[in-house]
Amino acid sequence: MADRVVTERFLEGYAEILTEVAALGRRLTRAEIESRRALGEQAAEAGHSLRTLVGAHLSAAREAWPGPAGSADGALAVVQQVVDAFAEGYERAQRLAVRQEEAVRREFIDDLLYGRSDLGRLAERAERFGLRLSQAHAVAVARGPAAYEEGDPVPRRVERALLARFGHRDVLLTTKDGRMLCVAPGHEEEILPYFAEQAHTATGGGQVAIGRAQPGPGGVVQSYEEALNALEMAERLGLDEPVLRAADLLVYPVLARDRQAMADLVRQALGPLTTARGGARPLLDTLTVYFDSGCVGAVTARRLSLSVRALTYRLERIHQLTGADPADPAHRYMLQTAVIGARLLGWPDQEL
User: What burial class does residue 159 get, using C-beta atoms within 10 Å of its C-beta: 0-12 exposed, 13-18 middle, 19+ buried?
Assistant: First the structure.
């Protein structure tokens, strides 16, 4: 009874279609075919058994069969039994094949992203999944408010959009550590931006990082690590752009490479701000917004919800405490670099 209730929603309009088709002797219309396909997709996404759904359709056909019960009903009953047994065996083999394929695919993806396999052997295995590792490849990584796994609705939605737009053009879409990944040939420059657009929409405003195209079998690993680093850098810097390109963020890893030198710069250039009333945070935030606004006072004041006069007072106070004038080009680079360093190192919330 429970199965019957569950499957009834996927038989919506089926009896009416059978009755009309039998009475008029016509074929299904395009709209009727599309409605059945849509219900089939919904049933698959809901995880219902093919065998149960086929059986439900055959049962509904027997009930809707025109005329009194007779030889036609008996024949349909036998057909239903045969189809049920056939579908059961089919599903059993399919589940086994899917589990085996998923295990092979996951092993390949892990080896691909971590470079743990012989590169020659890896390139051979990659062809099975539509990748030619002799070419350059780039990787995009998308994160959202939730962790995503293979087969989840969000990755499937993004995959359908990519297939509809590009077909099977050497693109690999997968998940890793709760994030969505897309691997694409480096010369197919339109694929990853489109993936980023679809992933941003599907995740409800998630963030996507795109690594640079890198050549050879090890290029996927390098591009993947660049994309991950870009996401990490964005989190530390508070960057909220929906799409990040690793090529645009190369300066930050360079600045963060010598942590001790950066910490010394932050202490020297910004340390005096800690003596201000309210601590360093308000003045540091003022500098951050000021530099992010292109050093335009009116824009900075609006973003900080301050008057231009109040902003001018803060900038003058920073000049008094640090000896560096944010409005002076000779001082600006040093102060801006120190502000970036503070964001990278988590200062002043963390001790240097």
Answer: middle
CA dihedral 340, 344, 346, 348 (to 10 degrees): -30
Residues 6+ apart with CB under 8 A from 122: 108, 111, 112, 133, 217
- The CA distances from residue 279 to 273, 275, 312, 327, in Å, are 7, 6, 18, 22
pLDDT in tens, the chain (352 residues): 445 555 677 778 877 877 777 677 677 788 887 887 777 777 777 777 777 888 888 787 777 766 554 455 555 555 555 556 555 655 666 666 667 767 777 888 888 888 666 777 777 777 777 778 888 999 999 999 999 988 889 999 999 999 888 876 678 888 999 999 999 998 888 999 999 999 999 988 889 999 999 988 788 889 999 999 999 988 888 888 899 999 888 888 777 778 888 899 999 999 999 999 889 999 999 999 999 899 999 999 999 999 999 999 999 999 999 999 998 888 888 999 999 999 888 899 888 7
pTM greater than the 0.85 cutoff: no
Nearest to 159 by CA among 207, 194, 107: 194
Of the CA atoms within 13 Å of residue 128, those in its CB half-sphere come to: 10
